[in-house]
Amino acid sequence: xxxxxFFITFLLLAxxxxxxxxxxxxxxxxxxxxxxxxxxxxxxxxxxxxxxxLRAGKLQGVKGPGLFVIIPVVDRVVAIIDERIQTTAFNxxxxxxxxxxPVNVDAIIFWHVHDARKAALAITDYRQAIDRVAQTTLxxxxxSSMLAALxxxxxxxxxxxxxxxxxKTGEWGITVSAVEIRDVAIPVALxxxxxxxxxxxxxxxxxxxxxxxxAEIAGKFVEAARIYTSQPGxxxxxxxxxxxxxxxxxxxxxxxxxxxxxxxxxxVGAAVAVTLAGxxxxxxxSAAAATDxxxxxxxxxxxxx
Length: 305
Fold this sequence. Notes:
Helices cover 51% and strands 25% of the residues. It is α+β, with helices and mostly antiparallel strands. The radius of gyration is 47 Å and the shape is elongated. Residues 266-305 have low confidence and may be disordered.
């Protein structure tokens, strides 16, 4: 009983009791009967509700929202339909995909009743029917899909499920707004295999990238070798620049083959050991005699910057 009906009924019953207490039996009984009639006939539907009413077994109408009156005994409210958006969770356990992989899929469906008459009269229990239809459609969708497509393209799967379920529930006055797959669970053994496959794919891609980089580097070296072969002066300048870069730091001793020094500057003579400042106690002449090298300060070498 809604608050308005309860309040009016309470006033009528209280007034009837007062008349009876004052000795007016007939008015009191009339007020009591009127209160009982109001309690059975005055109904109120909220703004999101629809009342389906049968009169003598036939559809009398769909009432609401607001206050309305029915005839007691003759009229009967057979269903109170909530037209707000509803959510129903459903799942498919151990469903086989097209590539015979067992998966457990959890999903949720958003729906609302757009025709209260059909929802009340066309089907016995529309809520249970929605759950059954959603599960059946989800299993059909899983059986026609590959596991990779089911995992990667959920948006398309959601759209197809929404359309398929909506076609079936439309005859019951129910509109499906959306379907969302929340989780796709696969066996643990398959998860390990997929993880190893993904790791192998990443290693393969890394090796391809590394090989491509090595090929590019080798190509650049070949191009540089051709330039140095055709231009010996460029090779001498490059070699002297390398020596200069390595002798900028203090406390470094570099032994250079004599053939390399001859190619850079034929006037120097045998092989050269370049010793930077800071190597105290070194004997250039003994070092040259022992290793067939000559110690020359870096800044005294011809051609160095």
